[in-house]
């Protein structure tokens, strides 16, 4: 995560909760309680999870009515599927609207990932990404304050993922010359202005016209106010 400017990338290669909570991956201070929880969490990937993580896709924002058969039917065009696990509530058995889909080989998984942009299943536009738990070093799930994505209303957005990639860090050195106050020649049309001595101060033609225009506008407002006052007095 500690990249130089030349090594910037929109996606995280290691999960650092402090950086993931920043829109450009440069924050040095904690700004929400979820990040504090994620920093203090000691999470280890579930060893009981089977399958090849490099061949596994994470599918979210599913319809509550979508089942495993529908998911497999949608993705089988990209290659042979080994297994599909739709995550359900352990009490109610209802779908939690996300699933994990494992292909037989990595190429099929990558092909499905590339072709799944704006994919709609059961009238729901789904989100597809690679599995993070066993692939991304330092991963912390959402329930512990980490994860990726999120809603603006929650105040706990997480960046560095396909859903919300990092923005390129702003650099004052790369900014245009509009903000370079050391070189004011173009604002003065090539005329040097000495701000150090009042007697030598010379305004440009545009500056004088702006001052005259402001003076005229102010006087017009005052005259209008005076007329209103006289009208009420009568």
TrEMBL record:
GO terms for molecular function: mRNA binding; snRNA binding. Residues 55-118 form the RRM domain. The keyword Nucleus applies. Residues 190-234 are annotated as: Disordered. Residues 210-234 have a biased composition (Basic and acidic residues). The keyword Aminoacyl-tRNA synthetase does not apply. It is found in: Nucleus. This is U11/U12 small nuclear ribonucleoprotein 35 kDa protein. It comes from Patella caerulea.
